[in-house]
Amino acid sequence: MSGKPRLTYVNGRGRMESVRWLLAAAGVEFEEIFLETRQQYEKLIKDGVLMFQQVPLVEIDGMKMVQTRAILSYIAGKYNLYGKDLKERALIDMYVEGITDLMQMILMFPFSPPEVKEKNIDSIKERATNRYFPVFEKVLKQHGQDFLVGNKFSWADVQLIEAILAVEEKIPTVLSGFPQLQAFKIRMSNMPTIKKFLQPGSPRKPPPDECYVETVLKIFKK
User: Fold this and answer.
1) Which terminus of the chain faces fewer neighbouring Cβ atoms within 10 Å, N or C?
2) Beta-carbon contacts of residue 71 (< 8 Å; ≥ 6 apart)
3) GST C-terminal domain location, by residue (predicted)?
4) Which CATH number goes with the domain that contains 160?
5) How far, in Å, CA of 147 to CA of 138, rounded?
């Protein structure tokens, strides 16, 4: 095995996409193993590789890490994207948790029945524009800096740009009332490592389609 982190998940976004984003933003190359059958997943469990019988699985620094939050916080700390002290880390944690709540709605959207998809898009728009994006608009305005915490690029910035782009895929005008976030989106998208990740052919996964949903259900649903 090379020294690169190795990611094991389905060939799609899901809970691994934030890990891909964070590694890419840190300028770290990684390898991926894509699960395609339930047998592959069951073998991982049988071999004792998955602590809680769940993926994502990230092999890094000799560890087999599971649980998305633990994986992300380790990567953020390892690559100096976790603030300079405990107070900055607490802010990053709060921002990340808030963004994760919004992203949970995005993650579950592809699995919702067709008859409620429009209603779910309305719910995502309502939450984004009334609860989550106003927080970050205010932070950036009051803070007066390019980044959310201190004046340094952090895990929180990566999570936010991922969320903005994911919501925009469903609601293209969602940032219309948020000039600070519009500027933030442009800044982040032009950072060299993120710009590279946004190019065609990068490890970034496309929006979930029916094939992705079928694969997830085939592998993980009993």
Assistant:
1) C
2) 19, 56, 58, 65
3) 85-209
4) 1.20.1050.10
5) 12
